[in-house]
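Sequence only, no structure available. Ideas?
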Amino acid sequence: MCGRYTITAPPDVMRELFGFGEQPNFPPRHNIAPTQPVPIVFRDGAQRHFLLVRWGLIPSWAKEVPASLLINARAETIAEKPSFRAAFRHRRALMPADGFYEWKAEGKGVKQPYVIRRRDRAPFAMAALWETWATAEGSEIDSCAVVTCEANATLAPIHHRMPVILDEKDWDAWLDPATPLKEAQALLRPAPDDLLDATPVSTRINRVANDDPSLLEPATIEPDPEKPARPKKQPDTKQLGLF
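Reply:
I predicted one. Tokens follow.
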């Protein structure tokens, strides 16, 4: 799954890369969490647009905000799941990012967080779905979910799922509602194994209030106190033990 991510590229870099017309002033974020405002890029006609939405999709037909947050949508089932199928047909989007976090269970201790980024540290686009939900009072809330797939070889030792990272050449096809659904779903595959790397970081990332560049600094993985260390091999002191 994807539950935290980062956007640190300057707004002008994001605007040039994603080709939207707006000029947003989105500050660098190092620990974006569900329910917070996040940027998406969607298509209206032939134009791409920037929009801030709530991370945690609210289906348009919902009578109230779901108790459980729909922050991720499984690629394998988005065409059938009632919560996602309308958005998959009509409201596909890109979620700009330059990193995301995942946690690995290390024995019985605290889970070790990792930041996952492109090896060249360039921004990328996660596949997303978005919806507009109308409240009983008539106001509207725009919201989104990240599409996830099976992990590639780089991520599999950490977690079995990962966000879909779309190749730039596939952005137009994903955003275009006219793209046949089978073709759109075929784009939802694991990233190439050599695209990303994973770096252990501090458990400070676990606290949403922490949002600063130091979160990306590499951390030393402490040994699991429940797991005894392997004893060192003792040298052979016998007379014939030369090697």
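The longest strand covers residues 124-134.
Hope that gets you unstuck.
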